[in-house]
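Structural prep section.
Before we set up the soaks we want a predicted structure of the protein with 4'-phosphopantetheine in place, mainly to decide which crystallisation condition to try first. Input record follows.
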Amino acid sequence: MLRAIYPGSFDPVTFGHLDIIRRSCKIVDELTVGVLNNNTKMPLFSVEERVKMLSEVTGDLKNVRIVPFDGLLIEFAKKMQADVVIRGLRAITDFEYELQMSQTNHKLDPRLETMFLTTGIEYSYLSSSTVKEIAAFGGDVSQFVPEAVALRLKEKIKAKRRV
Ligand code: PNS
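Run finished without errors. Recording the tokens verbatim:
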């Protein structure tokens, strides 16, 4: 039984993340998508909102569950009984940070391996930050995120403008 976690901020989930989730759940028996609950990162969406959006867009995948987490990733992996961490690599610019993170995690818990999936070329430019910026300026994000997420982005930005 191979259990893996795919951790991230998912603020919000994009088609790039979904590509990694769909491909990973074919490789492993159980996939836990870990949603970081870290307010120091000042996310646009609360952890509950991010979990809800991820649950909606992965509802058809039987071996995937969405779980919020805080604290160290290695502790979360232990709690989820996962042996593998999955991360997506978009471009060479991701590599340095990902290498450092996987090596640190491996040092902290030598049983924990990190497996990298290269993001599909069609999503290699895509990031949650860019999507948020486009949405903030009223741009169309429908080719970057699922419809339900695009709608939430619109609502969130409207609500923020009112404050
Ligand atoms: O989507 P992101 O923001 O690139 O995901 C980063 C994440 C959540 C994988 C990373 O920040 C993380 O693992 N945070 C948990 C704290 C931790 O364990 N830090 C030490 C890892 S080197």
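Observations: The longest helix spans residues 92-108.
Flagged for discussion at group meeting.
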